[in-house]
Amino acid sequence: MLRVAVVGSGPSGCYTAQSLVQRDPEVRVDVLDRLPCPYGLVRYGVAPDHEKIKSLQGSLRTVLEHERVRFLGGVRVGGPGGLPARRLRELYHAVVYCVGAATDRRLGIPGEDLAGSWSATEFVSWYSAHPDAADAGFLRGVRTAVVIGVGNVAVDVTRMLVRGAAELRPTDIPQAALDTLAASGLTEVQMVGRRGPAQARFTTKELRELGGLPDTDVIVDKAELALDPADPGALPTGPRRNVEVLRDWAARPPAVAAARRIRLRFFLRPVELLADGGRVGAVRFERTAPDGTGGMTGTGRYEDVPAQLVLRSVGYRGVPLEGLPFDPASGTVPHQEGRVLRDGVPCPGEYVAGWIKRGPTGVIGTNRPCAKETVTSLLADVPALGRAVLPEEPVAALRAAGVEPVPWDGWLAIERAETELGARLGRGVVKLSDWDALLGAARVLS
Q1: What is the CB-side half-sphere exposure of residue 83 using CA atoms within 13 A?
Q2: What predicted TM-score, i.e. pTM, was given to this entire model?
């Protein structure tokens, strides 16, 4: 029997487990996660109003309920209080790390750490009920907000900032976040990119959702669209459709009676967050222009945009995992076809898949071929890894180390508790948003 640990239960971890059990009838897979809940960013990164994407949990669930797959939540690997990577290698023939990209890229500009300046991931974690997220008073006293970035995450947080309670109430958003958003006095969000509309990273489907928000006007400046030298007819399908949507919005008259506004801005590079009474009060941007080689150059012209909340959405980044090599330039673990490289040499028994392998690129489905490549390498190494009976059973070893894993039944108990919470609130399923509530549900009800 081959015993494999997969660290991380998001899409890359589940697809890795799926590929293993499909291709090797003798493999047993333990999927470990530091959280008591599975599914990774599908649970804690997809906006609550994107129910179709969140339904992907159903297919991931099928993987984790496979007879040769075991979910072990609440197991931290590496770092303070975590199980050392070397100990994990003693318990399994092979370990595949699917830990994603857990932090955000920074802007690297003055004022970035002012109160009221947050990464988009922190905001997403809050409205997604991640147990590490704090109620940071994101919207307290906020009238205008700036979202820096023009990718899908930027669109998500912009949309969530202006969503009304009536649209969010049927979702699984935690009650505290729903109450905060419902009471918000925010009236305007500016989403800003340093490049032009033809280079924006959002998908057309996501972009169009902004135009369908109730009581919300979307404003695009014709002059900023005109700065883009790209010929829309020569663009790939996605960027061309984005430009077409933006041009349509720019040609429409403003909706005078709308309660909220979204302004999409382009060719503006943030250079400083300006303070007002100890917290952010505005963002200073420099106007940019195409440099003729595919990049942008500053023009020396500046614009200050008032904002009491700034959300930075300029990309994810992997973080080092204690016991594994790490390339700080790419934010990934060095690898060769999924095999971890130590000093340039492949290490049979240690593997990576997902964003920690290739960087934060692609969509959810991109993780499938990525996982298959890694599994191919792992199975090719089996002659060297062996299938000998290992001396310790992992769960017993974890308990001996003071770690009580949350089994699949514990997760099912959390699901029941969230359903019951929603019923008490007159809603559907409502997420539990703190460690005590999650672990209490898992331990008591399972």
Answers
A1: 28
A2: 0.92
